Amino acid sequence: MAVAVRTTDVLKWKLTWYPTPVGLLGSSCSANATPEFEGRGGDDLGTEIANTLYRIFNNKSSVDLKSLCISPREHCWVLYVDVLLLECGGNLFDAISIAVKAALFNTRIPRVRVLEDEEGSKDIELSDDPYDCIRLSVENVPCIVTLCKIGYRHVVDATLQEEACSLASLLVSVTSKGVVTCMRKVGKGSLDPESIFEMMETGKRMGKVLHTSLQSVLQKEESLGPKRQKVGFLG
User: Fold this and answer.
1) Rounded to an integer, what distance in angstroms lies between the CA atom of residue 29 and that of residue 37?
2) Concatenated DSSP letters of the chain
3) How far apart are alpha carbons 56 and 184 in whole angstroms?
4) What is the pTM of this model?
5) Around Cβ 111, how many Cβ atoms within 10 Å?
6) Which is nearest to 77 in space by CA: 89, 65, 92?
7) CATH placement of domain 2-227
8) Less packed terminus of the chain by CB within 10 Å, N or C?
9) pLDDT tens sequence across 46-72
């Protein structure tokens, strides 16, 4: 799976409120990942991924919107996230959310200045220094924990075979502090209130562990600098 964040667009605000900071411009699923992605199957899943990410980021707390502001109520950065699914071994939404947070962690936004002439018109000027950038805070960016109900138990990080045994799953979006920002049930089966509560509590615990492990890996990789080992064709 490949996830890229593009920050090439500067939009002029038409309204006085902040727009959604992160939008999913494209989500494509290769048929090489699984035959189910061939034809309409891949398109439907791409739409489902886009809608799920939109629900996660459609708020003011996931990403610091002020850091995307260039000129209040006039210009702002808009981030577009492209997801390309090359392989699927289960637990899809969890992997995508981890990749999105990692991509946002590595994102560098060029620093710009707003210049105003005597007539009051404004112009945006990019810094001449390619390393003069700002970074996004990913502290409140949530990760998804999917819990699959199998019998009277629920499973985290399920494989494709385990997912096939589950009639209902609960997607829990959790921040690094264990705050649940979004929940969504998938599957044709039903979940009773007691099961939902237990799955939600498990999701909160596992989400905090997931965030801690991910942040540790990202910081360790960043500390390597140019010595970082390149992996895959996107390395």
Assistant:
1) 6
2) -EEEEEEEEEEE-SSSSPPPSEEEEEEEE-TTT-GGGTTHHHHHHHHHHHHHHHHHHSSSSSS-GGGGEEETTTEEEEEEEEEEE----S-HHHHHHHHHHHHHHH-EEE-EEEEE-TTS-EEEEE-S-TT-EEE---TT--EEEEEEEETTEEEES--HHHHHT-SEEEEEEE-TT--EEEEEEESSS---HHHHHHHHHHHHHHHHHHHHHHHHHHHHHHHHGGGSPP-STT-
3) 11
4) 0.81
5) 14
6) 65
7) 3.30.230.70
8) C
9) 788 888 888 888 777 888 878 888 888
Residue located via tokens 């947070």: 101
Q: How far is CA 168 from the centre of its chain?
A: 23
How is the chain split into domains, by residue range?
2-227
Rounded alpha-carbon distances, angstroms, from residue 107 to 3, 81, 110, 136: 12, 11, 10, 7
- Phi and psi at 133, nearest 5°, equal -135, 165
